[in-house]
Amino acid sequence: MMDEKEYNRFAETRRGFLKKASLGFGSIALASLMGDFDILAGSSIPNVGVGGVLKNTHFPPKAKRVIYLFQSGGPSQLETFDYKPSLEKWHGQEIPPSVQGTQRNSGMVSDQSTFPLVKSIYDFKQYGQSGAWVSELFPYTAQVVDELCIVKSLYTEAINHEPAVMFMQTGSQLSGRPSIGSWLSYGLGSDNENMPNFVVLLSKSAGAQPLNSASWGNGFLPSHHQGIQFRSGKDPVLYLNNPHGIQDHDRRRALDHINALNDHQHDLWQDPEIQSRIAQYEMAYRMQNSVPEAVDLSNEPEHIFKLYGEDAKTPGTYAANCLQARRLAERDVKFIQLYHMGWDQHGNLPKDIKRQALSTDQATAGLIQDLKQRGLLEDTLVVWGGEFGRTSFSQGRLTKDNYGRDHHPGCFTMWMAGAGVKKGMIYGETDEFSYNVVENKVHVHDFQATLLYLLGIDHEKLTFKHQGRRYRLTDVHGEVVPDILT
Questions:
Q1: Strand 389-390 to strand 407-408: parallel, antiparallel, or no bridges (unpaired)?
Q2: Domains of the chain
Q3: Is 34 exposed, middle or buried (0-12, 13-18, 19+ CB in 10 A)?
Q4: Closest Cα partner for 472 from 272, 49, 215, 178?
Q5: Pairing between strand 65-72 and 132-135?
Q6: What is the DSSP letter of 179?
Q7: How confident is the model at residue 13 (pLDDT cuts 50, 70, 90)?
Q8: What does the pLDDT look like over 36-94, one tens digit per residue?
């Protein structure tokens, strides 16, 4: 009689052989019919990354890396980039039922009996050769507006924060799917084996809507593709430093023994997560030398701190994280995700959004300028935006100097800059109330498909089989938006 381990090993080996053999014969037959043995890659453009499943990209990539400045909570498009002068004449009047009925409202206004339209309390002006309208809240961003491609016609299917954030980051409103950064790590691998493929930086404001770490999770992809969160302070990655008395050669010897044990377990059980664990141990070992230097801002000159703002000297602030993102981009980290919380203004919007703008505007513009002066903007895609927009009617009481805005999935604004996108472009348009998209609608999956395209990936071809189904970032639809591409 075999013991349980021997039986499982025998069964797994037998099943694995039959499965792999049958699939192998089928793949050979299919490839011979198609006349191309490289049936998965579908491109002759070599992928220069290490460790990705794509030997070739599907298209010539225009971007090597992404810096995604996610403004969590849902910035109001009406106080940022979607100027609506027509709301001045509608200010204080009820939103027409024929307009309000075209979109869902959240449960937070279910007891509200009146829905007065409200103009922005802040002024707008046109800037740059593009003539883009920008709120007075963003004077620094206004100065780089000709570097931006402002998309005013995004829309989503989610109306509450967590499902909407998940939808933007993973393509699904439910937790458990891989995030964008994880998909890129899985597909393209790393351009710097001493740094993680996918790094997450968090900053927040008082009373901010919390974030679920599944937003940067690997989902059903191997776990070494999840985002690695860098913390503020002297230890950006927990447990990265050796304990007192442990030398580098001691750590190396211990890892070699652990890896040998893990290799034995993998031979025994064929569990791919064992390989992920080995990869994570090795990455942690290499990061012991690479990360401390990468996150050390002490050698940055004073004029750089002035560019990003004085907050850049304070670890954990949005400005410090933007400067950190530039340093990571220099070291070829593939996907750098900044989450800045605090944009959820259901009430007291004029005061709270001003605070948010003050803490982010200079650093955002500084990042664009810094990347450009170093030649990095040519192959770095920068993205700015949140998970949905805000209503044009006031949530709660409308007064002379105060109002709020509820969640609004029907339209919101994002912008992109850098590699592969047109400069100084305004794309899409909303109606006079900024309530519905009336020109060039861009679904969340369209945005995701476009982002992947800029990195050389066909969003329909980068898939992963899980529980009998092949999944992708864009689920079952999504189209690249060619009009905004160079």
A1: antiparallel
A2: 1-39 (no CATH), 46-484 (3.40.720)
A3: exposed
A4: 178
A5: unpaired
A6: P
A7: low
A8: 333 333 445 888 778 899 999 999 999 999 999 999 999 999 999 999 999 999 999 99
Contact between 155 and 412 (Cβ < 8 Å):
yes
Report which of 68, 54, 184, 151 is spatially closest to residue 446, judged by C-alpha positions: 151
Residue of 474, 424, 416, 426 whose CA lies nearest to 153: 426
Six token digits for residue 412: 């919101």
> Which residues partner with 425 through β-bridges?
149
**Residues 421-479 pLDDT 10s:** 999 999 999 999 999 999 999 999 999 999 999 999 999 999 999 999 999 999 999 99
The partner residues of 202 in beta bridges, in order of sequence, read: 339
DSSP 4-61: HHHHHHHHHHHHHHHHHHHHHHHHHHHHHHHT-S-TTT--SEE---EE-S-SEESS--
Torsion of CA 240, 285, 198, 222, to 10 degrees: -110
- Sequence-ordered list of residues with C-beta below 8 angstroms from that of 224, at least 6 positions apart, any chain: 185, 218, 276, 277, 279, 280, 283
CB 39 within 8 A of CB 179: no
Neighbours of 442 (CB within 10 A): 23
Q: What is the DSSP string of 119-162?
A: --SS-EEEETTTTEEEETT-HHHHHTGGGEEEEEEEE-S--SHH
Distance of CA 175 to the CA centre of its chain: 15
User: The tokens of 295 are what?
Assistant: 């996150």
What tokens appear for 455 in the block? Answer: 């990195």
